[in-house]
Amino acid sequence: MKEKLKDFNLEELFEAILTLKTTDECYAFFDDLCTVLELKSLSQRLQVAKMLAKKTVYSDIVAETGASTATISRVNRTLNYGSDGYALVLERVNNK
User: From 27's CA, which of 6, 17, 18, 35 has a CA 20 to 30 Å away?
Assistant: First the structure.
């Protein structure tokens, strides 16, 4: 999948994100870059991934996050068959 996504503009976006040093810088950049709904969707997916990694059942994830079962299924599929991006981030967050 990485090769399908890779292009100059996306590469520049990721390089820009990697320059951010603080949570406040992230808030400022992502506030300018994304809509509130886009940010809420991204953060919701991360919460779903965290809960799935802890083996939380779908009904509890829906109740806690408000995510649809379709979103939960997609995140679950990505956790199991994706590029391991969630796993990498969750491991690093848990080791903080």
Answer: 6
Predicted confidence at residue 3, as pLDDT, reads 73
Going by C-alpha positions, the residue among 82, 87, 62 that lies closest to residue 72 is 62
* SS3 state at 95: coil
Digit-coded pLDDT (tens) for 8-40: 899 999 999 999 999 999 999 999 999 999 999
Report the alpha-carbon distance of residue 5 to residue 94 in Å, rounded.
28
The answer to whether 26 touches 20, Cβ cutoff 8 Å, is yes
Q: In this structure, are residues 40 and 63 in contact, taking their beta carbons and an 8 Å threshold?
A: no
96 in helix, strand or coil? Answer: coil
CA-based max dimension of the chain: 40
Residue 8 to residue 46: CA distance in whole angstroms = 26
Q: Both tokens of residue 80?
A: 């199991």
